[in-house]
Design a protein that fits this description.
The chain is an alpha/beta fold and 203 residues long. It has two domains: 68 residues, Ubiquitin-like (UB roll) (Roll), CATH 3.10.20; 83 residues, Translation Initiation Factor IF3 (2-Layer Sandwich). The protein is built from four helices and eight strands; from the N terminus they run ββαββαβαβαββ. Strands 2-1-4-3 form a four-stranded mixed beta sheet. A four-stranded mixed beta sheet has the order 5-6-8-7, with helices on one face. The longest helix has 18 residues. The model has no long low-confidence stretch (mean pLDDT 84).
């Protein structure tokens, strides 16, 4: 016979740094009424639970550690919200690859250049690759010239990293976005004070 579903029973998940899981002997306890008190951890836990709250360790490296009496569900919600905001602000730099042939026509070249401009303005790096097939490998100089021209056409938004490199049947170059310096703040000119009026000419 197969064991019943859910066997063996799972142990309840222990919340770290909450209530009885706090290992510090004493904490600086912060309560909703604004009171702050250094007290033994068990006493702080009991006081928080009497308020219908949990005691949550929010600064474990402080001396003594700081714990706050609050609703654990609300605490989890605030932590997830902070993590979500941090991820939104974080930008992961990617390397976008664009492939060419030694005899790439002008239309295809301009199309890929437009893509490269967009990638660089988004803060990503661009890897331009020229692929050589068959007898084209005898004309690697054409591929390198194409890569240098491509980097030159992107000079306003990108900076070339080194010279084109040949690896196997491919030549490539890396182009990084140009770091723009913040615009200087314009100095506001103070309004000139009007010259004091001289004495009126006698009639």
């Amino acid at each position: 016979m197969y064991p019943p579903r859910g066997y063996p029973p799972r142990r309840p998940r222990i919340r770290e740094n909450v209530n009885e899981a706090i290992r510090a002997r004493e904490v600086r306890a912060v309560f909703p009424d604004g009171s702050v008190e250094i007290m033994p951890t068990p006493a702080a836990v009991r006081r928080a639970q009497d308020m219908g709250l949990d005691l949550i360790l929010i600064a474990p490296t402080a001396e003594p550690p700081v714990a706050k009496a609050m609703d654990y569900g609300q605490y989890q919600y605030e932590q997830k919200k902070k993590q979500h905001e941090a991820k939104k602000k974080q930008h992961v730099i990617q390397v976008k690859e664009l492939k060419f042939r030694p005899n790439t026509d002008d239309h295809d070249y301009d199309f890929k250049k437009a893509h490269a401009i967009r990638f660089l303005k988004d803060g990503n790096r661009v890897k331009a690759v020229v692929q050589f097939r068959g007898r084209e490998i005898a004309h690697t100089d054409l591929g390198k010239k194409l890569l240098l021209k491509f980097a030159e056409d992107l000079a306003g938004v990108g900076t070339i990293e080194g010279q084109p490199r040949l690896e196997g049947r491919n030549a490539h170059v890396i182009i990084s976005p140009v770091k723009t310096a913040p615009a200087p703040k314009e100095k506001q000119e103070k309004p000139r004070e009007a010259a004091p009026a001289g004495p009126a000419n006698p009639a």
